[in-house]
Every structure is written in C-alpha cells, then in structure tokens.
Amino acid sequence: MKKVLLVTTVSGFVPQFQMHNVNILQKMGYEVHYAANYNIPSYGNDNNRLDGTGIVRHQIDFARSPYTKQTIIAYKQLKQLMKKNRFDLIHCHTPMGGALARLAAKNTNTKPVIYSVHGFHFYKGAPIQNFLIYQTMEKYFAHYTDVLITTNHEDYQAAQKFKMKENGKVYFVPGVGIEVEKFKNLTLDKRKLRKNLGISEETIILLSVGEVIKRKNHETVIKAMEKLKRTDIVYLICGQGELEEKLKNLTDELGLQNKVKFLGYQEATPYYHMANIFLHPSYREGLSRALMEAMAVGLPIICSKIRGNVDLVDNKGGRLIEVEEIDEYAKAILELSNNPKLRNNMSTYNLEKINQFDISNIDLMMEKIYKKSFD
C-alpha cells in the first residue's frame, strides 16, 4: 500500500483540524502515517482521538522552539523515518514541523512535499524580527516545497513572491472548513446550560474559544469588562493554557470574579449556542476555525482587525477592533449588548456568509490538490 506522512509539531493538530484530509487520503487508497511529538498533545490532555482512525503513529521529539538541540534530534528522527518507509507524499503543518519535514524530505529525496501554512509568523503589524527570522526561513524552505497551501488572502499574496521548487505551486484554500449544518441544527436546552453555570436568562453572554495563551489576547477583553461596570454581562473563556493562572489573578485584581468564568478545555459547541456575542481578540490568526464555528451558530462577532479575521468578518456581521484597543472593545460590547435587533441582523448575515467555508467545499479543493500532487 502506498503511504503518506503527515507531520506536525504537536500531536493534537491532526485530530483537531485534519481528519477530513486523513479521510480523503484513506479513500484514495493511501496508508496515513503521522509524525509528531505525542508527549505534548495540545487540544486536550491525551492522544485518544487518534485511536481507531487507522493512522500509524511515529514519535518525533519536536520542541516548540528552534533554539534547542532537540531540533537536531527531531530532524535526524524524521530523516530516519523517511529513509525507512519511502513515503509517496509528505504533508506537513506548523512552522517547526514544516521546516524540518521539508529539510528531511530534501535530504532523503522524498517527494512530493505539501506544506500547509496556517498563518505565517510574519504579517502586517508583526515585530521586525518576525520578518528577519520567519520570512527568511519560509523563503528558504519554499525551494524544497512542491505545493504551498495558504488559508487567507494576506498569506497567499506573500507566498506568491517565494521562489518555489521547480514546477511548485501556491494554492489558496480558505481554512480547514467546518460542518456548517452540524452547528446550525444542534438542539440544546439553553436554560439548563445557563442554570448550570449560574447565569440568568437576562444576562448577556460573551464567549471566547481558544488556548489561554498570549496570542489569543483574552487579557484585552478582561480589561474591557472592567470598564463596562455592568452586572448583566458575563465573559466565558473555553480553553486552557499557560496564562490561565495569570488571567485568573488579573480577574481577581479587577474584581471580576463573577463576570469572567474560565471553563477549561471543553467541547465548545454548547457554549456557542448559549452565548449572545462571540469575542475573538487574537494578535495573530491564519483563518480561525473557532471564528467560523461561531458564525455557523449565528453569533455576532467582535474580533481583532487582523489577517484571517478580515477574511471572515465585516461590518455587517460584527465589529473589527485594533488588537489592544481596550476602550473600543468595551464600546463594541456595549453597542451589541444594547441592541438585540443589530445582533439579529448580524446573525442572519453570518449564517449566510459562512456557507462558503463549509467543509464540503474545502474537501473538494484538497482532493484536487492531492490528485494533482500524485500525478
């Protein structure tokens, strides 16, 4: 049986975002292998979502930072894995996984190589060192890439300037896609959900979904909550991460213990349905799946005015705010909280717009790319 190798730095990436691609490859008759660091799973606490998928797992000792000897160890492990298995295609994701997989593929003559970039680390407004380091790195590794897939228009334009491998191609695929109908048609007892969290029917629920890390910028919304001086608005954060304790302390300092609730890692779908407004204040995104899911439920959006977010949200479906403008976030929260009709109009608009990002459309694009790569 022909074999495909997927490569990501952390092991939770494929079950969280790439199972549709796994299914496409398996239906095409390929055995799917997955190289990642299974000791840092992410998007949950273990790797059990990979059980029963037919995916062959390979431990690679990736580190998140390139500035460690683990980088050399991980590269050697990947190179040995490719020599042993002679894969028919490599599809890599994440900066470290993508860089080391492409270098190992070059030095083992493994091809073709696809790299999906889920948001370049250099972008409008990024620190200058991001351009010096990450843009230089991406340009270099483009020479060893047969197919480069971008998920938003800013990254697509940037990738057009790279010098790819001979006959290499750059594609635009709008994100990983979502099952729109799955989110639209879910029936839940919203009153019971609110009651379980001690939230009244009259309270406006703000929701964010994502890792509790600096990049997601929950701190800005928490500080905006302090400015509102409202007892009928509560902010729910679905996710876990290294900043959770720090943000809980900030919440205590600002006297927001009853207004900000940290829910930890959760299946977020029920919380989308009980919320009134979705907040997505990230510093950086590729094309956010959480943002797409919120739109599929019909939530009005308040989000940062950054690459990826602007591909999804416009003024008809929400409000775009500069990343650290605490006062503007507070203003937007008040505007939407006080205007049910505006929220309803935004909901209707987002329910229609999100259809173009349905997983069925993304699957067709990816199947065509895979078939072209194997030709």
From TrEMBL:
<dbReference type="InterPro" id="IPR001296">
    <property type="entry name" value="Glyco_trans_1"/>
</dbReference>
<dbReference type="Pfam" id="PF00534">
    <property type="entry name" value="Glycos_transf_1"/>
</dbReference>
<feature type="domain" description="Glycosyltransferase subfamily 4-like N-terminal">
    <location>
        <begin position="3"/>
        <end position="151"/>
    </location>
</feature>
<dbReference type="InterPro" id="IPR028098">
    <property type="entry name" value="Glyco_trans_4-like_N"/>
</dbReference>
<feature type="domain" description="Glycosyl transferase family 1">
    <location>
        <begin position="189"/>
        <end position="350"/>
    </location>
</feature>
<protein>
    <submittedName>
        <fullName>Glycosyltransferase family 4 protein</fullName>
    </submittedName>
</protein>
<dbReference type="Pfam" id="PF13477">
    <property type="entry name" value="Glyco_trans_4_2"/>
</dbReference>
